[in-house]
Design brief:
By secondary structure, the protein is an alpha/beta fold. Helices cover 45% and strands 15% of the residues. It has 13 helices and ten strands. A five-stranded parallel beta sheet has the order 2-1-3-4-5, with helices on both faces. It has a five-stranded parallel beta sheet with strand order 7-6-8-9-10, with helices on both faces. α10 packs across α13 and α11 runs parallel beside α13. The protein is globular, with a radius of gyration of 20 Å. The two termini are 31 Å apart. It binds 6-O-phosphono-alpha-D-glucopyranose (G6P). The site of 6-O-phosphono-alpha-D-glucopyranose has 15 residues, from α4.
């Protein structure tokens, strides 16, 4: 649809695409649901998921980060072991494959050459592949045995936003569908929870001014910034730091809270911005301990917590969503942080230097 690839009243595609996320969630709910509210996935995808004994997720960049979250869904809900691999690294140290492996390629564009090289290789070995992509008919989609569509609409900004959240939503649906196929007990209605996420995303995208203010106060002239989190939040830290570095050129890294003491804390100086994500009850105390450790060494800390876990000094409170789906909410303020940091530095938000939307060379 031509209107999808125009900015309309938006100054940048990235901002438009961040704002589209609630609609993408609702579209995914619609596309993956039957009229009587059952999950709607192809029977052959279901069969392939049910039959495999291990899943190998292959992806690059932001899609790799979505894969890290997807691993949690598939292991926790569908009880299948999952490995997540960076496409370009896979062939150097190819893991020992299980007896009945299933490969899942996650790719917004469906054209990433590193991922395709792995697909070609594993097809030669006779294994099956499922591609999760935003572009039906793309190379990775055509060459895989099965495809799941993201329904995110065209993503134009180089920095991926709505594709990441769409990938996570589709992976959650896939995990639940597999759990149902395996007749596992589940206390999780993905469509109901995704609808709550869509509403939370709307609340979040309405808070642009608050995020812009945080950027102005804390990321103005900084050279570097760190993101810390544990468990699921750690994956969002990796994605948040990628967003920030790719468009604002601030040197940014995401660290696991528990690893700080093993080296990273040496980087903390007076005023170093440290963004902490705290959406998981079981690690809330430990991540708060890490925040205190870096604050004691002079860091300028900003805690993004989920409603119910918040403390008075937190920089930003994220509306409550199901504990498994928190990345879908917590990533939105991270995307906005990156956006405003880039904007305030006069960077080319939609077309950052040296980067391409889709990397079709190995
Ligand atoms: C490029 C883009 C990233 C993207 C990555 C993987 O590096 O700049 O935004 O995450 O490729 O792309 P894919 O289309 O395979 O998801």
């Amino acid at each position: 649809d031509a209107s999808d690839i125009e900015k309309g009243t938006y100054p940048h595609f990235m901002l438009k695409e961040i704002d589209e996320q609630p609609f993408v969630m609702r579209r995914i709910i619609k596309e993956y649901q039957t009229e009587d509210n059952k999950l709607k996935l192809d029977a052959d995808v279901r069969q392939a998921m049910k039959a495999c004994d291990r899943i190998y997720i292959i992806a690059a960049g932001t899609s790799y980060h979505a894969g890290l979250v997807g691993k949690e869904f598939i292991e926790k809900l569908a009880n299948i072991p999952v490995e997540v691999h960076i496409a370009s690294e896979f062939s150097y140290n190819m893991p020992l494959l299980s007896e009945k492996p299933l490969f899942i390629f996650i790719s917004q564009s469906g054209e990433t050459a590193d991922s395709r090289a792995v697909l070609v290789r594993i097809k030669e070995l006779g294994h099956s592949a499922l591609t999760i992509t935003n572009v039906p008919g793309s190379t990775l989609s055509r060459e895989a045995d099965y495809t799941l569509n993201l329904y995110a609409g065209p993503e134009i900004a180089v920095a991926s936003t709505k594709a990441y959240t769409a990938q996570i939503a589709v992976l959650a649906i896939l995990a639940v569908d597999t759990a149902q196929a395996k007749e596992l007990e589940l206390d999780f209605d993905p469509m109901q929870e995704l609808a709550i996420v869509a509403n939370a995303m709307e609340v979040l995208t309405d808070q642009k001014e608050a995020i812009e203010e945080l950027v102005r106060e804390n990321l103005g002239t900084t050279r570097n910034a760190f993101f810390i989190g544990r468990s699921t939040d750690y994956h969002v830290c990796q994605e948040g730091s990628l967003k920030l570095k790719e468009i604002s050129y601030i040197q940014a890294e995401g660290f696991a809270g528990g690893e700080l003491k093993h080296g990273t804390i040496a980087l903390i100086e007076e005023g170093t911005p440290v963004i902490a994500i705290a959406t998981q009850e079981n690690v809330n105390l430990s991540i708060r301990g890490n925040v205190q450790e870096v604050a004691a060494r002079g860091a300028n800390t900003m805690v993004f917590s989920m409603k119910g876990l918040e403390q008075d000094t937190d920089a930003f409170v994220i509306p409550h969503v199901h504990e498994l789906l928190t990345p879908l909410a917590s990533v939105v303020p991270m995307q906005l942080l990156a956006y405003y940091a880039a904007l305030h530095r006069d960077c080319d938000v939609d077309k950052p230097r040296n980067l391409a939307k889709s990397v079709t060379v190995e």
